[in-house]
Design goal:
With 297 residues, this protein is of the alpha+beta class. The chain contains 15 helices and 4 strands. It has helices spanning 3-18, 22-38, 40-46, 53-64, 70-82, 88-101, 103-108, 117-133, 138-157, 159-165, 172-183, 189-201, 207-224, 237-251, 282-296; strands at 226-231, 256-261, 269-273, 276-279.
Length: 297
C-alpha cells in the first residue's frame, strides 16, 4: 500500500476506534475482499487500467453507499483512486488485516525511521484528506485553515518551541503533550488531529513549511467540494440536487454543483469535481466513434 493510502487508513481507523466501529468496519472490508475474490467481472473491472477511474469509483459507490458504514465506501473508493488498479486486491487485503488487528493505529504511535520527505508528505496527505473529508461544511474548513495558518506563524516566531517539537531525539509522546498543551481549547479537534499527526509522520526539519503545506491542502479540499457541470441546457433544482447527491456518493463528501451553460457541449454533461472528470457529452461519444472508425479503416 502506498504511503497516501496508509495515511488515509490511519485516519479512518482512528475515527472508527473513537466511535466503537472498528469491528464493523473490518467486517465490511472483509466482505469487499471476498466479493472481489469471488466475482471475476468485479475484479476484472476494478483492476483494469483501461477502465476510467471515475467509472471504477462509480462501481464502488453503487456497491457500497448506503449499505454499511460511510467509512467503508470512502476507504475503498480512495484506494481505487490512489492505488494502481492491478494492486487493488492486495492493497484491500492489507487494509482488511490492518483493521482486524489494529495495526494502523499501533503503527501511528511509533516514530517513523528513515522516512523520505516525499513518503512522509504522502502519509500526511492521505491522513489529512480523510480528516478534512469528515468535516461537515465549508465553514469548518475555513476555521481549520485559519487555525493551521496561525499555528504556522506561531512556530515561525518561536524557534525554541519549534526546536522542541521537531527534535526527534526527544520522546514522541512528550512532544505531542507539549503540542496538546499549547493548542488545548484553542483549536478545533480536526486541527489538533492534523497537528499531532505532523509530529508522527516524521521529517520535521521544516515544521513551519509543513503546516503551510497543510493550509494549501485545506484550500484544495474546498475545491473538491465544488463540482462544475458544463451543459448546453440549464438544470432545474431537482436535477441539480440529484447530481449533487450522486457526485457526493462518488467522491465521499458533500458537493455543491455549479452549472455552466456551454453550447459547445452538444448534449449531455461534462462534470469536473476536484481531480475527477466525467465526460458524458454527445461530442465525446462522437469523437470516440470517429477514433474507432479511423482505427478500423
Amino acid at each position: 500500500m502506498r504511503s497516501i493510502g496508509r495515511g488515509y487508513l490511519r485516519a479512518v481507523e482512528e475515527t472508527a476506534v473513537a466511535g466503537g466501529m472498528r469491528a464493523q468496519l473490518a467486517r465490511e472490508l472483509t466482505a469487499v475482499v471476498v466479493a472481489l475474490h469471488d466475482s471475476d467481472p468485479l475484479r476484472q473491472t476494478l483492476t483494469d487500467p483501461s477502465v476510467a477511474q471515475g467509472a471504477r469509483q462509480g462501481i464502488v459507490a453503487d456497491l457500497l453507499v448506503d449499505r454499511g458504514l460511510e467509512a467503508t465506501a470512502s476507504l475503498v473508493g480512495f484506494l481505487v483512486r490512489t492505488e494502481r488498479p492491478a494492486d487493488l486486491p492486495t492493497v484491500l487485503t492489507q487494509a482488511e488485516r490492518s483493521l482486524e488487528h489494529g495495526d494502523a493505529v499501533a503503527e501511528e504511535r511509533a516514530e517513523p525511521a528513515g522516512a523520505s520527505r516525499t513518503s512522509a508528505r504522502e502519509l500526511l496527505r492521505g491522513y489529512a484528506e480523510r480528516v478534512l473529508q469528515e468535516l461537515p461544511g465549508s465553514a469548518d474548513l475555513d476555521e481549520v485553515e485559519d487555525e493551521l495558518f496561525r499555528l504556522a506563524r506561531l512556530l515561525d516566531g518561536q524557534p525554541e518551541l519549534r526546536s522542541v517539537l521537531s527534535n526527534v531525539t526527544l520522546p514522541l509522546d512528550g512532544r505531542i503533550r507539549v503540542l496538546e498543551d499549547l493548542l488545548a481549547g484553542k483549536v478545533r479537534p480536526a486541527t489538533l488531529r492534523l497537528a499531532r499527526f505532523v509530529l508522527r509522520a516524521g521529517r520535521l526539519r521544516d515544521l513551519v513549511g509543513t503546516f503551510e503545506w497543510l493550509v494549501e491542502l485545506v484550500a484544495a479540499e474546498r475545491g473538491r467540494r465544488v463540482a462544475e457541470a458544463r451543459t448546453a441546457v440549464p438544470l432545474d433544482d431537482a436535477e441539480a440536487s440529484r447530481l449533487a447527491a450522486a457526485l457526493g456518493r462518488l467522491v465521499g463528501r458533500p458537493v455543491e454543483v455549479r452549472v455552466v451553460l456551454d453550447p459547445a457541449v452538444v448534449g449531455g454533461m461534462l462534470v469536473s469535481v476536484g481531480d475527477l472528470r466525467i465526460d458524458g457529452t454527445i461530442r465525446s461519444r462522437l469523437d470516440k466513434l470517429r477514433e474507432a472508425l479511423a482505427g478500423s479503416s
